[in-house]
Amino acid sequence: MSGSGICVNIDPNKAVYFYMRYSLLILVFSVLCVPAYAQQSPLMGLALDVRGPAHFTHNGERKPLVRDTLLYAGDRVETGAGGTVVLQLSPHLVCSVGERSQVTMEELQRATAGNGQITRLNVSQGSVAAQVDPGTGQDVTVHTPTAVAAVRGTEFIVEADEDSAAVLVNEGSVAVENEAGDTAEVEAGNKIVSDAEGLHQSILEAFEQQKFEIIAQFRELRRANFEHYTEQLRRNQELMDQFRRDQP
Predict the structure, then answer these.
(1) pLDDT band at residue 5, thresholds of 50, 70 and 90?
(2) Do 97 and 126 touch, CB atoms closer than 8 A?
(3) How many CB atoms are located within 10 Å of the residue 96 CB?
(4) pTM of this prediction?
(5) Quick one: which H or E segment has residue 221?
(6) Which of 79, 104, 129, 229 could disulfide-pair with 122, CB 3.0 to 4.6 Å?
(7) How far apart are the first and last CA of the chain?
(8) Residue of 194, 190, 196, 195 lying closest to 173 (CA atoms)
(9) What are the pLDDT digits (tens) for 14-35?
(10) pLDDT category of residue 243 using cuts at 50, 70 and 90
(11) Any bridge partners for residue 130, and if so which?
(12) Is 180 helix (H, G, I), strand (E, B) or coil?
């Protein structure tokens, strides 16, 4: 005998069976794991448009803000003179950060019930104009140094500095509470100012109504496939980060 070896006879029918079974298991695993993976991903905001000087701070690192930048809970957006940023924070919430503003996204999370989202912004100075689609489960709260505005579905603007805050409402209504615990409901076409003397409500003037013209561009800029788009950007960023880490 010139050599030795092991010969194994495999039934072709069984081989095909096990191959098909293995392929089916891989397919089922992939289908089941993708939704679970997506649900574990943190909610993200997206810079739709950036004009003029603008930066964002993420994990303590300050960087220039550009279009398609992903933003997470805890990130802060800053704009300089002439700088504006349009952000989409959910499929149903778009806002614009005005010039010389500092806005922190303190909370971005899914609501415990339904398909809504809880969003909490902190405007330490400057302004934010926002459009929140009604009836979509959006729970939006805007904090300023002197007042808190609670929103469900509306078009509104918040302007703030260290001493006062103004909430302007174009559609829907906004509930406002100041540091003293005084509350008021601001209806469409009205504004409220919170300062050291309390809450003062009045009708919007013509120049204040014109400030809402910026919201018209939101419809053109917003991403209809927002969640899919941001998730793809996040995965691309992870791949790029991994590639950089692997370089010698």
Answers:
(1) very low
(2) yes
(3) 22
(4) 0.81
(5) helix 218-221
(6) 104
(7) 53
(8) 190
(9) 544 444 554 444 444 434 444 4
(10) confident
(11) 95, 156
(12) coil
pLDDT of residue 155: 96
Kindly tell me if the per-residue pLDDT of 70 is higher than 70. Answer: yes
Query: What fold, for 45-231?
Result: Jelly Rolls (2.60.120)
Q: To which residue do tokens 């013509």 refer?
A: 206
Vertex 237, ends 235 and 240: CA angle to 5°? 115
Coil, helix or strand at residue 130 = strand
Model confidence pLDDT, tens digit, residues 155-182: 999 999 999 999 999 999 999 999 999 9
Closest CA to 121 of 172, 173, 85, 82: 85
Question: Where do the DSSP E strands lie in the chain?
Answer: 45-51, 54-58, 61-64, 70-71, 76-79, 84-90, 93-97, 102-110, 117-132, 138-143, 147-151, 154-160, 165-171, 173-178, 183-187, 190-195, 198-203
Locate 50 and state its tokens.
């950036």
**Cβ 49 vs Cβ 18: under 8 Å:** no
Q: What is the C-alpha to C-alpha distance for residues 104 and 73, in angstroms, rounded to an integer?
A: 8
Can you say whether the dihedral through the CA atoms of 144, 149, 152, 155 is positive or negative? negative
**Sequence-distant (≥ 6) Cβ neighbours of residue 69 within 8 angstroms:** 46, 47, 50, 56
pLDDT band at 231 (very low <50, low <70, confident <90, very high): very high
